[in-house]
Each structure stands twice: as structure tokens, then as C-alpha cells.
Amino acid sequence: MSATVSPLAPKKYVKLPALEGVRIRTAEAGIKYRNRTDLLLMVFDEGTDVAGVFTRSKCPSAPVDLCRANLPGGKARVLVVNSGNANAFTGRKGRETTSLTAKAAAAAVGCRPDEVFLASTGVIGEPLDAGKFSHLLKDMAKGAEAGLWGEAGKAIMTTDTYPKYATATVKLGDADVTINGIAKGAGMIAPDMATMLSFVATDAPIAAPVLQQMLSAGTKGTFNAVTVDSDTSTSDTLLLFATGAAAKRGAPRITDPKDARLMQFRRALNRILKNLALQVVRDGEGARKQVEVTVTGAKSARSAKRIALSIANSPLVKTAVAGEDANWGRVVMAVGKAGEPADRDLLSVWFGDIRVAREGERDPDYSEAATSDYMKRDEIRIRADIGLGRGKATVWTCDLTKAYVEINGDYRS
Amino acid sequence: MSATVSPLAPKKYVKLPALEGVRIRTAEAGIKYRNRTDLLLMVFDEGTDVAGVFTRSKCPSAPVDLCRANLPGGKARVLVVNSGNANAFTGRKGRETTSLTAKAAAAAVGCRPDEVFLASTGVIGEPLDAGKFSHLLKDMAKGAEAGLWGEAGKAIMTTDTYPKYATATVKLGDADVTINGIAKGAGMIAPDMATMLSFVATDAPIAAPVLQQMLSAGTKGTFNAVTVDSDTSTSDTLLLFATGAAAKRGAPRITDPKDARLMQFRRALNRILKNLALQVVRDGEGARKQVEVTVTGAKSARSAKRIALSIANSPLVKTAVAGEDANWGRVVMAVGKAGEPADRDLLSVWFGDIRVAREGERDPDYSEAATSDYMKRDEIRIRADIGLGRGKATVWTCDLTKAYVEINGDYRS
Fold first, then answer.
1. By three-state DSSP, how is residue B279 classified?
2. What is the CA angle A188-A284-A355, rounded to 5?
3. Looking at beta carbons, which residues of chain B come within 8 Å of A342?
4. Which of A128, B8, B191, B333 has the fewest CB atoms within 10 Å, measured from its CB?
5. Active-site choice (A26, A97, A158, A195)
6. Which residues from chain A sit within 8 angstroms of residue B185, using beta carbons?
7. Confidence class for position B3, pLDDT limits 50, 70, 90
8. Per residue, what are the HEC states of A62-105?
9. What residue in A sits closest to B326 (Cα-Cα)?
10. Chain A to chain B, count of Cβ pairs less than 8 Å apart?
């Protein structure tokens, strides 16, 4: 948690409403940080369905292993998240910690071990002592309340400069259902999946396989389309819980992902995922500007996304944005290095609505002054048209500033 | 050219000897820089053989196109290099510039157009006016001298903080032959091939196909194994010229790459390529430390190199090195994100000779103090053993400092 809040933070934090079937408690366990909460417990009513998406790292953290193992059951009763220590690359000790924590959590809420989900975020490679916090879970479960979403968002922060919230209420059948989400970044953010922890819950009655389909599809253009520094965490975890409590108010239980009644819900979920993913980017370590990179005219959507990520991950593009320099030559460089089909002489590049290059050279109408003006904005859009096909993709990143180096040059100290 | 020389610069610059068959001249053409040379002419005696390796960017510069077109002829009489403008992504104008420059160069030395080689380095996307310097070539050719290698190294610099030289004299048959090389970096450095310009010449009589075989093989573990920022330039050019003048002193003409008499020469060439490549890394923009990354125990050499580059290109690993923080967790993260076969619980990591992690967790003998001491050095070695096979690779990079961001945040201004 940083003393200086990102200039791209929301002007006002959205307040998440209570969600039936979810109760929350946070605590100061003193795992690493002092004078702040670092432990989150979410308790779900019986029957809650769950879906998840995790890091593709070949070296995932112990909690990711545990979530993956429990996910096929499709049911969740409790989530425990700690910040300050990722419990990643902690070997046998790491597994002991997740095992002890899961047992304590199951006992605290009275559920089966495979209904427990865990996430840890912070330093990698330091053993995490379950003894530091597992004894707190029982009292936390007792004291858990429906309205504490604001606290939940704060307890999971690491180098984040602000908590990240999103909410929506939509119709499912004739009933109102609500979706609440929280997330944390802020470095080691890259697909797939974009680093971070994010927990989304709804009172809609939706079966786990349907949740999973929606979540997997929804991450593609959202959490898997944001990158801060091209580094992929060992701990990336996105979980979606559905308590089903809205069934009492007449919401239909959805068991088929093709159910037409899901349309509004699906859209709202995607908006929330995108909203949270963008908040993560806007709080990227040292970020001063949000950058939206769109690639059009590529051979395929897949190719477009690779080129877009090549641009979004290029240190030279990102430092140019930080320096408010419309250095489109570096965009060309990043297109060229992506390894995807591209023809220099068909390429066009835009900053915002200003076309700076077309057909492989500087636009004859290029105005340095107008483009420089544009670069002063908080939100920069870069577009590259490859001119070869119809493939299209958009990804989001932030600029690369001296503050990023500063934050990461002494993260552990 | 920067005012502050990299702390990793050589303590003493090696002086390159005159090389029979090569004459050199530099000039201040005022293309972008003031009060420094920015134009290099190298004239080669008739019969000089040439080989080259170029950027794999899909958007190569106009001079790269020209070199590629002329390379199959296998003969070179003149090389023209300018700094300050890369003549990249300059469309039709770019081709006009290379065409005009090549004509002027051919006229200046009296050779065929396909014996001309060009390279440009600097800003991308700005038209380069051949009229600014092509008229100088004739007088430069007249005034060219054998001993001006030192000047050659300086004229091609951009953000380099020091010129890069390497030389070796070895036996070919019974005759001494010399190899001289110069190079420039210093950002946009990544395989393949590592960005930069490098020009190597020898008086050995070696046929172009043999040169090409040696150069292509030699770049793999040298120029294609260094990375500063993962960004690949549109202009990467490495040319190797063999004037054959040593034949007069009894050196045998080599026409078969398997010729056993080449052994010493090949080794010396590889040493020079590695020496120049490392000088490029040590002058990486903002570099304060050289980092050698070795991956052992991977499934294959190819897999090892990918993992090594994932580590070497990770902003979080590089900022940790800058902060003298032995954050081996980030090394694990970079192994995990490489997408190559890896098993967390078989992984070991070393900083220098200190094993910090083994079998998926912190080494029981880990000493934070000893490791922190090690991180204070100028040259850091990181090794990761994957524990799966026998694949091995070494790559080199530098740390990521605030100075990198500073340099690249206002490069064009």
C-alpha cells in the first residue's frame, strides 16, 4: 500500500451493496504489514456455486494449487485471502500452510475441506506461517457481516495505491440480482491471466459450469487483455461465487450457458471484469497514464492480440508515453518485433484520432504540435492498422515511469 | 552520445590496428547531432567478400532492405553508415534515400551498385535526406585512411556512452590475420538479432559463403544472446568483411566452412562477437550492472534459451538487480511465465555461487546477508536449474534503472 495514490485513481470509490449469502470480515494479522488489515474472510451460504481462472505460470503458488484442486467440486463456503506473503515457491512448507489454513477455515464455518478457497499475495519465496492467522478465522467467521465489501477491498492490497471495486444490479428473469467485485494489482501484471487477485460474487442462482463458461469467456477481453509490465504472477486468481440467494426473490436458476435469460447478467459481469481490470492497469506500479492499444487489420484476432501486447509491453513505447513523446516509430518497432504477419508499407498508426503514419511512412498531414498536445492526456489511445486482414484486438496498459523502477527496486526492503 | 559514461565502460579502450584492404573516413554531416561525427565511410579493396545478419523485424529499415538485396553478390567495396536517423519506416522516401546514397557511394569509390552496403541508426520514422551527406562521400573516399578505426567507432554512436572496439590477430595457415570489430547499442536491444550495428573486418582471404556460415553460427551465442529491453530494432545489422589482403603474405584462401585451418580464426571471431555484444549490454541505456543469466537442466537448449530470455527480459528481475535486491522469487516468476516445461518443485536458483533455492523452496542454508553482499557487485550471475533435462543456455542483460526511463522518456526531444 503506497502513501501516494495513483493520479489515475477513481475520483470517488463506488460503495458495494450488501449481497445476500456473503458475509465478510477482515483482520490485522500482522503477516508483513503493520497498522493495516491483511486478512480477508468471506463466508458463503450453503449451496454457493463457484468458478475460477488462474495464472498460467508453470510455477503456481500453493494456494493456486489448492483452488485448482477444489474447483471441480463447484461449491464454495469460505474464501481466505492474505496479503503480504504470496506463499509461492515455498515447497512442502507452502502446502502445509494451505492445508492448515484450509482446515481452520473449514472448521470455522463448518464446511467440507473442498469448499474452501484460498489466495495469498505479496512476496514470493518466503515461507508463510499459517500459525500467524489461522487461529483468527473462527472469530472472524462469527463476526462476519454482509456489508463489509469496502473493508474486503482494502485487506487484499499490496503495492496498490487504492482499493478496487465494481458493482452492478441487473434483472435475471423478473428478479434483481447484484454482482459485486473487488480486485488488487499492481505489479507483475500480464496475461495470461493478468496477475492479480479478484473476487466477484453474485446472489444470482447460476450453476458452477455456467459460471465457469461466463468467467473464462469474460476474462479474454478483460483481465487477459491488461498488462503492466509483462510479468506474470505465480498467484493470479479470479474467483466468481454465486450464492443463489436471489432465487427466493424469484430469480430462475440457470443451468445452461446458452440460456437467453443470462444476457443482461453476462453483459454486466463482463463490464465488471473490464472495470476491475482497468482499475488494475490504472494503478499499475508508477502509472501516470492509461494506454489503450488497439490493433486492427491483422491476419486474425489472435495475431492482432499478439501485436497489441507487443506494443503494450514494449519498454520503449511505455517510456515514450511517460515522456509524453508521440514516438510512433517505436510503435512500428513493436509491430515489427511481434513476429506476426505485417507489411511495413501497409501499416498505419494513430495516436487518439490523429493518424501519424500511413502506408509505411509519416502521414503527410502529421502535426507534431497536435500530437504532442494529445500525449499530455491521462488516457492515451494507440491504434495500429496492419492492413492485411480483419483481425482486431484491444489491450490496456500503463506508462513506464521512474516510479516503477523505484517501487520495484526496493520492494522487499 | 551521453555526457555520462556508463560505469561499466572498459577502463581502457583497445586500439584497433590498421587492416590491409580497409580505409576509413568519418565526417560531421550534421544529420541530427552537432559537434560530433555522424557519418562513416569504409572503403574496401576490390575482391572483398562480405556476409551479414540482420534484424528479424517484420518492419525493417530501408538500409536493411538494401543490404539484404546486395548480400547474395557476396562482394563489398564500400560501407556508408550514418547516425542520428534510422531511415526506418520512411516508405518511398526511405528507398529514394538509400538509392541515392548507394549511387553516390558507388561513384565515390568506382564500384558496382551491388557492392555498396548501408546502415542508419537513430530516430525511426523521420525522413532522412540523402542530400545532407551524399555529396560528402567522394571527398571522404579520397581522404580515407587505414588507421581510423577509432574514429569509425565514434561516428556510429547514438545513445551509447562509449565506443565499442574489439580486435584479435591469429594464424591462418602460416600467416597472421587480423580481425577488427566495432559496434553500437544501446537501447532497443534484443534478439533476434540483438539490436545494434556492428561491423567486423578481416584481412583474411575467406569466401563469402564461409564468412556467412561462421557469422550466422557465431551470432547465436553472442549478439543473439544479449538483451537490454526486449525491444528489437528495425535496423539491426551485423556485417563481416574479408579483404583477403593477407593472401599476399601467404594466408590460404578458404572456400570450405569445414576447412580445419579455420579453427583459430573461428574462435577469434566468436570472441570478438561476444566481446562486442557484451560491450553493448554493458552500455545498455541506464545500465549499472551486467547480468549473466544461465539456465541449465531444461528440456532442450532452445527451451533453456527461452527461459533465460524470460528471466533476462523481466522488468521485475531487472529492477530487483538495480535495487541490489536478491529477489529470487522474481526469477521463479520469470521461469514460470516462460511457458516452457518447468516443475516448481525441481527448480533451483543461484545468485553467483550462492544457492538461494532448491527443490521448490528457499535453500535451508540461505543467507540474506551473503546474498545481499553479492548483489552489490557490478557483474551479477543468475542461474536457474530446471531439473528436467540437459538443455543449457546463457544470455546477458543489464539492470533496469530510473536512468533507462529518463533516457527513453525524452529521446526525441
1. helix
2. 115
3. 58-59
4. B8
5. A195
6. none
7. low
8. HHHHHHHHHHHHCECCEEEEEEEECCCCCHHHHHHHHHHHHHHH
9. A412
10. 239
Q: Catalytic one among B55, B159, B161, B195?
A: B195
| Three-state DSSP string of B6-71 | CCCCCCCCCCCCCCCCEEEEEECCCCCCCCCCCEEEEEECCCCEEEEEECCCCCCCHHHHHHHHHH
Region A204-230 average pLDDT: 91
Nearest CA in chain B to A307: B58
State how beta strands B379-385 and B348-351 pair.
antiparallel
CA A96 to chain B, closest CA, distance in angstroms equals 13
Q: What percent of chain B has pLDDT over 70?
A: 95
Report yes or no: B90 at the A interface, CB cutoff 8 Å. yes
pLDDT at site A196: 83
Confidence of residue A410 (pLDDT cuts 50, 70, 90): low
Write out the DSSP string of B342-363. --GGG-EEEETTEEEEETTEE-
Q: How far is CA A387 from CA A27, A282, B185, in A?
A: 54, 30, 31
Which chain A residue shows the shortest CA-CA distance from B228? A315
- Whether residue B195 lies in the annotated active site: yes
Q: Averaging pLDDT over each range in A222-226, B34-38, B363-367, which range is the top one? A: B34-38
Give the closest residue to A47 by CA, choosing from A115, A109, A102: A115
CA distance B198 to chain A (A): 19
Among the partner-chain residues B314, B343, B404, the one whose CB lies closest to the CB of A231 is: B314
Q: Using the beta-carbon criterion (under 8 Å), do A361 and B233 form an inter-chain contact?
A: no
CA dihedral B390, B396, B400, B401 (to 10 degrees): 140
Tell me the per-residue pLDDT of B83-115, one tens digit each, with 9 for 90 and over: 999 998 888 899 999 999 999 999 999 999 999
Q: Which helix (H) or strand (E) holds A305?
A: helix A301-312
pLDDT in tens, A222-236: 988 887 776 777 888
Which of A330, A340, A355, A413 to mutate: most B Cβ within 10 Å?
Answer: A330
| B334 contacts A89? CB cut-off 8 A | no
> In the prediction, which pLDDT does A193 show?
38
Percentage of chain A with pLDDT > 70?
96
Write down the pTM of the prediction.
0.84
pLDDT for residue A116: 98
Average pLDDT over residues A137-161: 95
> How close does chain B come to A383, measured CA to CA in Å?
16
DSSP 3-state assignment of A200?
A: strand
Structure confidence at residue A125 (pLDDT): 82
Contact B360 A60 (CB under 8 A): no
Tell me: the pLDDT tens digits for B230-254?
A: 677 788 899 999 999 999 999 999 9
A:185-224 residues touching chain B, CB 8 A cutoff: 187-188, 190
A361: helix, strand or coil: strand
Q: Which residues of A touch B333 (CB under 8 A)?
A: 57, 59, 88, 124, 188, 231-234
